[in-house]
């Protein structure tokens, strides 16, 4: 880290929350490829926006077109990918925005780091495990990635390659099984959790 830098204080998170009349937080969706993370994240973002909450979706593929285009899929690159996203999500949350992230984020330690960054800043962090049996994910396979991984074309593919395991969350705030629950059910479950915990207060219809 550079030594010739200084942190400049600005408005506090509490002040931003008061002015913008909404809390900032991160909703972290994790799960296998083709589990339905991006679809749920998109629907959740739209639901929040339609209910007058500032929200922004950070998607795994989209981020790799820009911010993280220099990273591959080695364990070290995966860790750095998640570290950067966690820092960006924290900035959104601090700005009193709802950051909705959609990343495989296969390693428990990396997700723990993302949570700790938010905890240190007293910002809510909600982990959502978007689960699906791997055979269902492979049957969906919208990008053809599982087939390429099985054929040896893609190396280090999460859930298939021996060196690329998916470490399931042990205690996520929200658990969703997309082989049994619809996108609408998933959004309702996440919003229900946030409302129950008093994190978000949806306007009356």
From TrEMBL:
One of its GO terms (molecular function) is adenylylsulfate kinase activity. Pathway: Sulfur metabolism; hydrogen sulfide biosynthesis; sulfite from sulfate: step 2/3. Residues 24-177 form the APS kinase domain. Belongs to the APS kinase family. Keywords: Amino-acid biosynthesis, ATP-binding, Cysteine biosynthesis, Kinase, Nucleotide-binding, Transferase. One of its GO terms (biological process) is sulfate assimilation. It catalyses: adenosine 5'-phosphosulfate + ATP = 3'-phosphoadenylyl sulfate + ADP + H(+). This is Adenylyl-sulfate kinase.
